[in-house]
Design brief:
Blueprint (H helix, E strand, L loop, with lengths): L1 E5 L3 H13 L3 E5 L2 H10 L4 E5 L7 H10 L6 E5 L4 H10 L3 E4 L4 H15 L7 E4 L2 E4 L5 E3 L2 E3 L3 H12 L4 E3 H9 L9 H14 L6 E3 L9 E6 L6 E4 L5
Parallel strand pairs: 1-2, 1-3, 3-4, 4-5, 10-13
Antiparallel strand pairs: 6-7, 7-8, 8-9, 11-12, 12-13
Helix pairs in contact: 2-3, 6-7, 6-8
């Protein structure tokens, strides 16, 4: 899941970006309205957190232009303006939710997650499962059978992304964008390393095995999270292009 955070206050921005990253999101940050508009028009985001009072172009103008361009990314407005009129104006401009400063990060996270659920027409996706592997999105607990697996944030984010795309083949570039969240050399081996680490934790001491295999690089090569316990297959392409 990829989030755009638009906030010019460095301390607040750092707080939000760090919290969302620790929650497993890939996060891009813009500190002015022009940059925010450029990113939102050129990149795909699952949600955006938007301050109103921004340099160059205010947050409401950014939202208005996005809606005019038919960009439907759900937006959580973050503002110190607390009046009913301000909240109504923000929502009428095209914002999907409104949170006033100061705020609790737990509440911000819950609101972002709710926006993503609604945008995907999902009811209450609290758990993903494939065979004997389960992932709880609320408690962030991963189990294989009755055994709990201890995953690091990026391992969790990779597994969630693959489980959400069960049955599809996703490229390394797609993984880099959704797990790391910024432009990264597509020839880097960070995906291979992360896949290997995740595979080790999924497979260790278990039978039958789930595994992620990365074969020798060629134009037709593919790697898949193969599930001998389920018909579901999570795919990863060796290609650097989505």
């Amino acid at each position: 899941m990829r989030i755009l955070v638009v906030e010019d206050d460095k301390k607040i921005a750092s707080f939000i970006v760090k919290g969302l990253a620790e929650a497993g999101f890939a996060v891009d940050h813009a500190d002015n309205g022009d940059e925010a508009l450029h990113l939102a028009l050129s990149e795909s985001y699952d949600a955006a957190v938007m301050d109103i009072m921004l340099p160059k172009l205010d947050g409401l103008s950014v939202i208005e232009r996005l809606r005019q361009a038919k960009i439907l990314t759900p937006v959580l407005i973050l503002s110190a303006k607390r009046s009913v009129d301000d909240r109504v104006k923000g929502l009428q401009t095209g914002g999907d939710d409104y949170l006033t400063k100061p705020f609790s990060f737990v509440e911000l996270l819950a609101r972002v997650q709710a926006l993503i659920r609604r945008a995907g027409n999902e009811t209450e996706p609290t758990r993903l499962a494939a065979g004997d592997l389960s992932l709880d999105l609320l408690t962030r607990e991963v189990k294989r059978g009755d055994n709990r697996l201890d995953l690091q944030p990026r391992e969790f984010a990779l597994l969630e992304y693959l489980m959400r795309n069960a049955g599809k083949v996703v490229s390394k570039t797609m993984i880099l964008e959704h797990v790391w969240g910024y432009d990264f050399d597509p020839m880097t081996n960070v995906v291979d390393v992360l896949v290997s680490r995740l595979r080790s934790k999924l497979d260790r001491d278990f039978d039958p095995r789930n595994y992620l295999s990365l074969p020798a690089k060629d134009s037709e090569s593919r790697s898949r999270l193969k599930k001998t316990v389920s018909s579901a297959t999570l795919g990863v392409s060796e290609s650097a292009q989505p």
